[in-house]
Structure formats: structure tokens, C-alpha cells
Write a structure and sequence with these properties.
single chain; five-stranded antiparallel beta sheet; mainly beta; Neuraminidase; 3 helices; four-stranded antiparallel beta sheet
């Protein structure tokens, strides 16, 4: 009787090359040889496949379930059918510890999970089905952030940002190095003055980029009654990126954005294959323009941009007047963007093309995280191999 291990090498390679990331568990249980091989090498199209993750919340936000999402943007736009079809397939993901996750972020295939027990955080490699618990002091959900990165030698680290009014800046920074298993306070002074100024975070090439809004208060008529000052809206004066470099363990200078931003306008960060940074600007209270920019060059100390898409949202079919983008991704070949809020995906093209797709499941609310990553065979107790 022929077994999997007896297959010709060329046929075995062909089979392994076709295995999707989401079928790794079934593959590993099929053949002991394949199981061992997959834990030291990337098999199939693992290095090329992309996967989305979604935190699905119960109706009363008491429980969160992690689901994988695959996206398939099909169709060729022409005068006859003229439509793309966005297929969204979801599957609940099982993490070995069966824990409650309320927030998740990623860096190059590893996921950082914040859990109900706010004295620990979890690092998870879904490709190898490995986890690592990291102890930390109790932290606040609302006024703390954890981001994962690595230095030039692929030594992984975690940056923790906490609101702390005992610090001169109002913020405290700590770093955890995987090879030392200790938290250490960092003596850094980035241009991030208040917790409320930090609006979005994304990991790219091992480093972390923060979108920062600095705001002042001012009025056109200085003779207005001072008692009314507290009712005035803040005027946004500057927006910029800050990069935390995990090699130098320091923040870089302000990185300019290709647009200005005022009150009522939002900016969302994303990435292209963790190689280029994406910015989505949505002026839904002012200009009604939606712009997407792609970085040509992105380093801790320098950035340059190219405009990918610019549309007038008032000309888009079924696009809401107020739309707060949670996440988005782009299709460079089709020249379209897929922009998500918690319940709806909008496919947007440069020439005014727009199509919406709802994805509410079982009448539950959705918290969406568009996490496109490449699989890695990084042992959580060792070094990373590609």
C-alpha cells in the first residue's frame, strides 16, 4: 500500500505547493514527514498568500471571536457587466489556549493579542500554531498600546506605550526583548505629547509607524466671550507620522504626510505586503474627498509618497455621508481599493466606480482588522527562517 511518504518527490512537491495557509492543520495531521517539514520551511504559497483577520463581537460586546477572512476580488470591468465581485469567506480561528481576545495586531506573520487578563499578553504564530505568554504589569485597555517589531538581526521586541501623568510627557515607554524576557523603561522623548494625539499604528519592515494629530485651540474672532471657549471645536494644526525603530530603540523625526488634515477628517493606515505604507484620507466633513497614498520610500527618518486614488465621495453610489474607515486594502492591478467600516465593504475605483457589500454575520457586530501578512516559520523560542 502506497503512503504519503512513498510518493515521488516531484509529486510531493507539487502537492505541497498547492496547500493554502488555512489548510495547514489538516495537512500536518495527514503525514508526519510533512508535519516536521512544515515547521522549518514555508510550504505551498505560504510566503505569497494573504489572510485577513476579524474580531467579531457579540451583540453586547461581552465576547470576541477571532475569524480568518479570505478576500477574492473577481470580475473584469467592461461596458457589458461592469462589476467586480468581492467574495468574503470567514472561518473561526482556534487559538490553542482558548482565550478571550479583545485586540490584536500583527508584524510580519506574528500576532500580538491583548486578552481579558490584563497582566499578560500573548504572541501567536498561526503558521506553526505556537504561542508565547508574556507577563506585564496591569494595564488599562483605554490608555495603553502594545506593538510588535524586530531589529536588523530579527530579534523580536515589544514596545509598550502607557499614559502616565507622573512622567513629564504624560506617556511612559517600555520595551520587552524576547531574548532577555524583561521589560525595561525607555528614555525617549518623541513628539507625541498626549495619549489622545496617537490615532493609528501599523507595523512595517519590523518597525512601527504612528499617525499623530497635534491640535491647538483658536478662534477667528478674538473678541468673543471667553466663557464660550470651552464649547469651541479644536483646530487641527499638524499631522505627521512617527517611526519607532526597533534596531536603535528610539523614535525618528516627524515624517510628513502628503496632505493636511482638519477637524472632521480621518486618516487610516494600512500596508502593501508589509513593504509599503498606505494612507487613506477621508474628508467626510469638509472636502468630501477620499484619497489613498502609497509610500515610494519608507524609512525611520524619511518618506516619500505617490497618490494611488482620489475620488469625490459625493459622486459614489450608496457611499454614506459619514464613513469612518476601520481598515482597507488595495488591488494594484485593478486600480481599486476595498474600504471597510464595521459592517460594509466598499469597492472604489478612480473613475467613480463604487459598489458596496455588507458582511454582517448572524446579526452580530463586527470589529474588523485587515491584516495581510506573509507566513513565517519563526519559532517563538528561536530565530526566524524564511
Amino acid at each position: 500500500m502506497t503512503t504519503m511518504s512513498d510518493l515521488p518527490e516531484t509529486l510531493e512537491d507539487e502537492i505541497l505547493s498547492r496547500i493554502p495557509i488555512t489548510s495547514l492543520r489538516s495537512m500536518r495531521s495527514t503525514c508526519k514527514k510533512w508535519n516536521t517539514f512544515s515547521k522549518t520551511q514555508i510550504i505551498g504559497n505560504g510566503a505569497k498568500q494573504s489572510l485577513g483577520l476579524m474580531l467579531r463581537a457579540s451583540r453586547h460586546y461581552r465576547d470576541f471571536h477571532l475569524c480568518s477572512m479570505s478576500f477574492n476580488l473577481q470580475g473584469i470591468r467592461n461596458e457589458d457587466d461592469g462589476d467586480y465581485v468581492l467574495k468574503i469567506d470567514t472561518k473561526q480561528v482556534s487559538i490553542p489556549e482558548h482565550i478571550r481576545i479583545y485586540k490584536i495586531s500583527h508584524c510580519d506573520g506574528l500576532f500580538l493579542c491583548l486578552v481579558e487578563d490584563k497582566s499578560s499578553i500573548l504572541v501567536w504564530n498561526p503558521y506553526l500554531a505556537q504561542t508565547r505568554w508574556i507577563k506585564t504589569k496591569q494595564y488599562s485597555r483605554r490608555f495603553s498600546a502594545f506593538v510588535l517589531g524586530y531589529d536588523n538581526n530579527y530579534n523580536h521586541k515589544i514596545l509598550k506605550i502607557l499614559e502616565d501623568h507622573d512622567c513629564v510627557s504624560g506617556l511612559r515607554y517600555e520595551i520587552y526583548r524576547f531574548n532577555s524576557i524583561l521589560w525595561e523603561v525607555l528614555n525617549v522623548t518623541p513628539e507625541l505629547y498626549e495619549w489622545s494625539n496617537m490615532h493609528d499604528v501599523v507595523s512595517l519592515k519590523g518597525n512601527t509607524y504612528l499617525f499623530v494629530k497635534g491640535n491647538t485651540y483658536g478662534w477667528a474672532d478674538e473678541d468673543e466671550d471667553e466663557d464660550e471657549d470651552e464649547d469651541k471645536d479644536p483646530i487641527e494644526t499638524d499631522v505627521y507620522l512617527l517611526c519607532f525603530d526597533f534596531t536603535t530603540e528610539s523614535f525618528g523625526p516627524r515624517l510628513p504626510l502628503p496632505f493636511s488634515s482638519d477637524v472632521g477628517e480621518s486618516v487610516t493606515l494600512s500596508s502593501v505586503r508589509e513593504e509599503q505604507l498606505l494612507l487613506l484620507y477621508n474628508g467626510w466633513e469638509t472636502s468630501k474627498m477620499l484619497e489613498i497614498w502609497v509610500s515610494n520610500k519608507i524609512e525611520p527618518n524619511a518618506v516619500s509618497w505617490t497618490k494611488f486614488l482620489k475620488v469625490d465621495t459625493t459622486q459614489l453610489t450608496d457611499f454614506p455621508d459619514e464613513f469612518d474607515a476601520v481598515s482597507f486594502f488595495i488591488d494594484e492591478e485593478k486600480k481599486v481599493a476595498v474600504v471597510f467600516n464595521r459592517y460594509i465593504a466598499h469597492i472604489i475605483g478612480e473613475d467613480g466606480y463604487s459598489k458596496s457589500r455588507g458582511f454582517r454575520l448572524w446579526s452580530w457586530s463586527l470589529l474588523f482588522l485587515c491584516s495581510k501578512f506573509s507566513a513565517i516559520a519563526y519559532q517563538l523560542t528561536g530565530r526566524k527562517r524564511r
